[in-house]
Amino acid sequence: MSSTTPLWIFGYGSLVWRPDFAYAERRAGCVEGWARRFWQGSTDHRGVPEAPGRVATLVERAGAICWGAVYRVAQGEAELVLRALDHRERGGFDRLDLLVATQGEEPGSVRALVYVARPDNPNYLGPAPAAAIAAQIRRSRGPSGENLEYLLELRDALEALGAHDPHVDELAELALNS
Description:
By secondary structure, this protein is an alpha+beta fold. The chain has a single domain, classed as Hypothetical upf0131 protein ytfp, CATH 3.10.490.10. It has 5 helices and 7 strands; from the N terminus they run E-H-E-E-H-E-E-H-E-E-H-H. The protein has a 5-stranded antiparallel beta sheet. The protein has a two-stranded antiparallel sheet with strand order 6-7. Helix 3 crosses helix 5.
């Protein structure tokens, strides 16, 4: 990436509601062909090694659309932001470069870095019944707090963007009412 090319980061999990980095612009955005799923184990933020929490990752799904937030990193901050995100997402996430459709004053699309947990990483938990995922989220906590907080903050942040995710909504309903 050249120093004149802006760095964009797409967030679909905690980055939607807690980016924790300097950015110059934030827009609602979506990626096509990807679905958000709570299939990644968190042993360093929303759980611990002996009791992992569950956090979002993206899985390829034909016809799926995943909404989130896309951030243009402040000029001169790319190296610092990437170092911090690589540390934050160290629990099994890899960087991908995806096309993100954006909304806002200038709708269009941008190439953005996205952190995705692949099934071959050591913290990947994979699919499970929604009730089991919700129960695990409800009882998990780690250094960054309650796993339920992560789920509810994500649901609320998506709602604020005007986006709803049936997977997130179902898990939140089950976690709160089971």
